[in-house]
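DM from R.C. (forwarded with permission)

"hey, sorry to bug you on a friday — could you get me a structure for this? deadline for the figure draft is monday and I only need the backbone to look sensible"
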Amino acid sequence: TGYVFDKAATGDIPATAKNGDTIKVYYTINSYKLTINYLYADNTVASAPYSETLKYNTSYDVASPAIEGYTADKIKVAGTMGTEDIVVNVIYTANLYDYTVNYYYDNGKDDAAAVTAEAAFGTEIASYADKVKTGYVLDKVEGSPLKVTADRTKNVINVYYVRAEFGYTINYFYDGVKDEKATVTGTKKYAESVDAYENKLKDGYKLEKVEGLVNGKLPITADPAKNVIDVYYVKDSFNYTIEYYYNNVLNADATVTSKALFGSSVTAYTDKNITGYKLDRVVGTPLTITSDEAKNVIRVYYVPAEYTVTVQYYTNNAIVNNLTYTFDAVFGTTVNTYNQVTIDGFVFTRVENLGLKVSENEADNIIRVYYTEVAADEEEVTKPAEKPSGEVAADEDEVVTPLAEVAADEDSVQTADMNNVLVLIAMMIAAGCAVIATVKKRVQEK
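My reply, with the result:
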């Protein structure tokens, strides 16, 4: 075994050979082939095969080649050549190596989030755990896909997250009604804050409240529906003044100051009329309340009222109704005149209440003029001794009273002037004789 007959070296055995002769027969050692295949676990070639022809009983010792990331199941192939070809397969198995996935948030590494795992050499790592946090979005990934190497420092995937931007809204309400045109929108990064809002105070309004702020700021969340500031304005109240004027003179003590809401209408006021006055006019109503309190003024004007003054004539203490007349005079003024009349057969004796101060009680505003009857043989009638009728000087605070026409009563009254004329004529005709003339009575205004 392991040898083969060498005919050439032995030659032919002679035909004359006999017993006792020595014949040398030669054998040659046989050779066999050693083959070593280097394979991966999947039977693909890991390295070029090794082959060698060896003689029988020759020893061999072949080291397995080193392949990065792999371990051979036989460090070497060693033995002695036998009587047949030898084929040896060396299988390489991939080594396991650590790889790491790091997570960064706003470029800050979160060590607690890092993941370390093992994978076979050459394995491609294309996936990793998504560890996005609320309010963040993926920015970039470095080192993916990762092919695992024998250098653990290179087996790294870096995942970067950044804060996302989220919308926010600022709403403005006026008297509880949202003003869509005033709404403000914007965006900010997660966990940032809106530190201020525009003051959109309208004329006549005041700030009521602001909702949505935390310590004076709006923190941005990942839910835009929660990123809302609501600013509420309501109408403010403003002073308004009601002034009272008497004969165009302001009575400051009567002034009233109150408050009312902006834009509201004020029409009512307290009537502060005083004795002897009447309402003349009201300026400023209806008053619409503005933010300028100097313009929020209602002015109420009173003027002295006019009251009826009555002048009555009496003969022998009996009123002569057809001579009574009336006129209007301003409250508080003094009446110092009246219409003077001459009554035939009567003489003026006195006047009552002349110089009266006009009051609101018209029953007190009466001037009484008294006449008494004279004897028939008296030749003239004495005129009244009071002031003549007509205009009174303005500084005397007296009423100017025109002389009114009094209806003539032909049986009783005549004027003093006419009476004197008729008496003179009668005396001339009678040539000194006593004549009793009957004259038609008539009243004449001076």
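R.C.: lifesaver. The helical segments are 7-10, 416-430.
me: no worries. DSSP finds two helices and 36 strands in the chain.
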